[in-house]
Write a structure and sequence with these properties.
Number of strands: 7
CATH architecture of one domain: Sandwich
Oligomer: single chain
Helix content: under 10%
Number of helices: 1
Order of helices and strands: EHEEEEEE
Shape: flat
Length: about 140
């Protein structure tokens, strides 16, 4: 247990989890269905020869794709905010606060709304430290 520098504070800012500023327990909007998928770039040297150390696990994936089902929603009604570990989506009827399983590059993601499927597809690059598998 660490004593805060200022004796009047209850906790240190490091103790507050990232994304807690978005949390609103009193918001009555329901959470939409969503799915998290992972993508990786592979070439023939990976598939046929196994020259890299990549495997099908999420540890070897470069991108995270979040598919969010938004029935009866227009593209113009969607508000999306991406932080390094948090996705915050709001529409007039739905709200999704998603703590991401991996840190992402929040500045260079892309999103597209598939109106026929009523789905928002958000693609984010996973930010990892360099290791023996992930060297891109």
């Amino acid at each position: 247990f660490q004593v805060p520098e200022n004796r009047k504070t209850i906790w240190n800012t490091e103790e507050v989890p990232e994304g807690s500023e978005f949390d609103d327990t009193w918001d009555p909007r329901e959470q939409p269905e969503y799915q998290i998928l992972f993508k990786q770039c592979v070439g023939t040297e990976d598939v046929f020869f196994g020259m890299s150390r990549k495997d099908p696990s999420t540890a070897c994936c470069e991108d995270m794709v979040i598919k969010i089902k938004l029935l009866e929603t227009k593209y113009s009604d969607i508000t999306l905010d991406i932080q390094d570990k948090v996705l915050d989506l709001r529409t007039p009827k739905k709200k999704l606060l998603l703590h991401l399983p991996y840190r992402v590059d929040s500045k260079n993601g892309k999103a597209r709304f598939l109106s026929e499927e009523e789905t928002l597809e958000v693609t984010l690059r996973v930010s990892r430290k360099f290791d023996f598998i992930n060297f891109v």
